[in-house]
């Protein structure tokens, strides 16, 4: 999967209102970040073809589609078909289970050379009411489906650490940095591979400056974390 960068950050292009703004963000941040997450609000506003136009500005980045997939396999495959040629990976919810759902999606993505990322749990506090309580069941789904990656919340780093122990060879991406209150680098310290950052960068008057500030904090937190653990 593409993606080499200065910072271990995936920029979430969810709340970006105009194509011009999205183009500017990708142009400015390309080569600095691991990748970009294309959120459903952006794709509904501007259509799936925007994915290809954005990707052409930064083909070296990892491009991840977040289509809020949580359905039977046939519906998820039909949804992904609209964007499959312009992304490297697709995010789906794990709670729908494997049989007749995620197993079919995984087979389809494998055949197209694309990666599957499963949401293990979410970054908002409401996830504690249901998602977190079902983590043992979620683990079973993860082990059965064998996704390339997992989404685990930077807002609850103990869960990132738990998932890293349970799934040592799976890439972990952690949202919740910035607007939801998680400090940059905290999820990385607990085992995440990348942190997903949205509004703290995309809504900034100086996106590159905000990225560099977040990246510097990431690296300082990681240095401190390694000192404490050794």
Keywords:
eight-stranded parallel beta barrel, 10 helices, TIM Barrel, 230 residues, single chain, alpha/beta, globular
In short:
With 230 residues, the chain is of the alpha/beta class.
Ends apart, CA distance between termini: 32 Å
> Rg from C-alpha positions?
17 Å
Read across the widest sheet, the strand sequence of neighbours is 1-2-3-4-5-6-7-8
Could you spell the SSE succession in H and E letters?
A: EHEHHEHEHEHEHEHEHH
Helix content: 40-55%
What class do helices, strands and sheet pairing give? alpha/beta
Regarding CATH, which class?
Alpha Beta
Largest sheet descriptor: 8 strands, parallel, barrel
Tertiary shape: globular
Describe it.
The protein is α/β, with parallel strands linked by helices and 230 residues long. The protein has one domain (9-229): Aldolase class I (TIM Barrel), CATH 3.20.20. The protein is built from 10 helices and 8 strands. It has an 8-stranded parallel β-barrel, surrounded by 4 helices.
